[in-house]
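Tip: read the tokens left to right.
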């Protein structure tokens, strides 16, 4: 009997950064001065393990409104499935969810966070979704991509959508 392998999984990820040069413009509801979007990322082994534990009711901290954070850092180290944190040694910052994030519609989950004037002012070269506001949490994924350099006085949002099909 021949064995046929069929790839039937899709993990589609988009991260979008909206950038306001002046935080006051963001707070006033003005359009962003710049928008950058990147596709794809890498599921981390620890994130896969937690997803599977949550699926079978084995416990763990979910990526829900009270426990979800998006972390950004300045490391350019390549992503590897065995990593358990952002790779930046010091320039990293985690922000909790804003509004009603995370949300799920059909097979898509969306996370969103805001970095105010005094937060995350460094080159954004990596990001991850975590269930903690530090590297001690379980990171779902990691992406290495240059998203720009945030300066004091600016306000940036990072929105991540993951569609599984």
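Filled-in amino acids:
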């Amino acid at each position: 009997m021949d064995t046929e392998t069929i790839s039937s999984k899709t993990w589609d990820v988009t991260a979008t950064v909206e950038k306001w040069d002046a935080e006051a413009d963001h707070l006033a509801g003005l359009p962003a001065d710049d928008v950058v979007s990147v596709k794809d990322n890498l599921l981390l082994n620890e994130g896969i393990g937690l997803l599977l534990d949550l699926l079978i009711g084995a416990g763990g901290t979910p990526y829900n409104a009270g426990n979800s954070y998006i972390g950004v850092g300045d490391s350019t180290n390549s992503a590897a499935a065995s990593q358990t944190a952002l790779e930046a040694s010091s320039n990293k910052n985690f922000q909790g969810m804003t509004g009603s994030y995370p949300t799920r519609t059909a097979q898509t989950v969306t996370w969103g966070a805001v970095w105010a004037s005094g937060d995350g002012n460094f080159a954004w070269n990596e990001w991850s979704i975590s269930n903690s506001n530090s590297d001690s949490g379980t990171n779902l994924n990691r992406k290495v991509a240059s998203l720009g350099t945030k300066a004091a006085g600016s306000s940036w949002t990072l929105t991540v959508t993951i569609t599984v099909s």
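The helical segments are 23-27, 45-55. The mean pLDDT is 94.
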